[in-house]
Specification:
Blueprint lengths: L1 E6 L3 H11 L4 E7 L13 E3 L4 H11 L4 E4 L6 H13 L3 E5 L12 E4 L2 H8 L5 E5 L15 E6 L12 E5 L6 H10 L4 E5 L8 H9 L2 E5 L9 E2 L2 H10 L4
Parallel strand pairs: 1-2, 1-4, 2-3, 4-5, 5-12, 6-11, 7-8, 7-10, 8-9, 10-11
Helix pairs in contact: 1-7, 2-3, 5-6
Bound molecules: NADP nicotinamide-adenine-dinucleotide phosphate.
Length: about 250
């Protein structure tokens, strides 16, 4: 019997949970950080909020008698992934990471790759631009330093308090976002630069394809370094791994 904890917050984590939900040979809980006010239904029991670092996670795994930990967090949630990798050094639990492949630039893309939001800000330059900030609500504050730009900010929940800049427009929405819709959004807001993360997957690729077709620059914040643990790229790979995994 696998007693599984999925570290979630991604479409793949949700898909995996739904695939496992009906099975009687597994018991599944999904963990969310609590970043969105009303998360999409996950199909399995959900717990919400941090564990208190790797020791807190190890304690939780022991108390819930979890023997399989699936790290299906967002590729930029590296603190959580590091914590998972350290937790399984403290306790006998199998760990598998589900990491979607990153996007790679193709012909026609105009990408500038930068290490973080601060470097993205520098890459925008001093001249006023119309910038689509496709970042998490917690990642916006560096852009206060560049009040000359017009910002378009899209988030799942409203940004509160708003970013302290004179020109900001907010839209709320939950992916997937199509290329056609994102092209219309870029056109409507006269966007000439996008700042985003290399999330991978289809759900948020619309803006990348739209930018290509409209010759809009994409300032791409590169992925953080993730721990060196066994990893697969798809939900199907996780299911196959589970069917062959020995559990402690
Ligand atoms: P993080 O920096 O890796 O995590 C910070 C802390 O949040 C962790 O140390 C952990 O607290 C808690 N946490 C994170 N994921 C959790 C989970 N699935 N279950 C329980 N606790 C969790 O991640 P982040 O601050 O959420 O976001 C970092 C980047 O990932 C941002 O770029 C964000 O936009 C992106 N992202 C995150 C999510 C998400 O659901 N978290 C979704 C989409 C995108 P403790 O140390 O106390 O355990």
């Amino acid at each position: 019997m696998h007693r599984i904890l999925i570290l979630g917050g991604t479409a793949e984590a949700r898909q995996l949970a739904h695939k496992l939900a009906g099975r009687d040979d597994v018991a599944v809980t999904l963990s969310l950080a609590g970043r969105t006010a009303s998360p999409a239904p996950q199909g399995v029991p959900v717990r919400v909020g941090g564990f208190g670092g790797s020791k807190g996670l190890a304690k939780y795994l022991a108390s819930e008698r979890i023997n399989v930990l699936i790290d299906a967090t967002h590729p930029y949630a590296s603190t959580m992934s590091d914590s998972a990798a350290r937790a399984v050094e403290l306790i006998d639990v199998r760990l598998l990471a589900l990491r979607r492949p990153q996007w790679v630039p193709v012909r026609g893309d105009r990408w500038t790759e930068v290490a973080d939001a601060q470097h993205a800000l520098a890459a925008l330059g001093k001249e006023p631009r119309h910038v689509f900030l496709a970042l998490g609500r917690q990642e916006l504050s560096p852009f206060k330093q560049a009040p000359q730009h017009h910002y378009l900010i899209r988030s799942v929940d409203p940004v509160s308090p708003p970013l302290a800049v004179p020109h900001a427009t907010y839209v709320t929405g939950r992916g997937p976002f199509s290329e056609a819709d994102d092209r219309a959004l870029l056109r409507e807001h006269h966007i000439n630069a996008i700042v985003c993360k290399n999330s991978g997957g289809d759900a948020t690729y619309g803006k990348i394809a739209a930018a290509r077709s409209m010759q809009v620059e994409v300032i791409m914040i590169t992925r953080p370094k993730l721990p060196d643990v066994p990893a697969v790229e798809t939900v199907e790979d996780v299911l196959a791994w589970l069917d062959h995994a020995d559990t402690p």
